[in-house]
């Protein structure tokens, strides 16, 4: 690898590290297919400019985690961390639109990962200090 290529790679890593303020794991369980919608809240003033971009995309229409990462050209883990921040601020929500959306027809009558993620977010919001939840990887 050339010196220029290595420097560009290191620069990308540093920007991502700065973007997430050194965090390496999201606080919320988010799958690649988790769908997000704009919520009533606003991101905090200290949140990254990319958070505004995420919100703008989600205001157009619902987007998945994967789609957001692709459109922003950012690593999925970094985008999940920022999405977690926006979920905490109620700026993003994980919608459950109908009773039929809560179950995956291929998996029987069990809840989808999207429904479980929405439930997890709601429980964490209501009782943030009650239980240490496992982190998604």
**Can you count the beta strands?**
3
Mean pLDDT: 76
Round the Cα radius of gyration to an integer and report it.
16 Å
Helix and strand content put the structural class at mainly alpha
Strand content: 5-15%
Overall geometric form: globular
Order of helices and strands: HEHEHHEH
Strand order of the largest sheet: 2-1-3
Low-confidence stretches: 7-13, 98-104
Residues in helix, %: 40-55%
Description:
The chain has helices at residues 3-19, 49-60, 65-72, 76-88, 113-126; strands spanning 35-38, 63-64, 92-93. By secondary structure, the protein is mainly alpha-helical. A three-stranded antiparallel sheet has the order 2-1-3. It starts with a helix and ends in an 11-residue tail after the last helix. The relative contact order is 0.19.
Care to give the gist of this entry?
This protein is mainly alpha-helical.
Explain the layout of strands and helices.
Layout: H1 3-19, E1 35-38, H2 49-60, E2 63-64, H3 65-72, H4 76-88, E3 92-93, H5 113-126
List keywords for this structure.
3 strands; mainly alpha
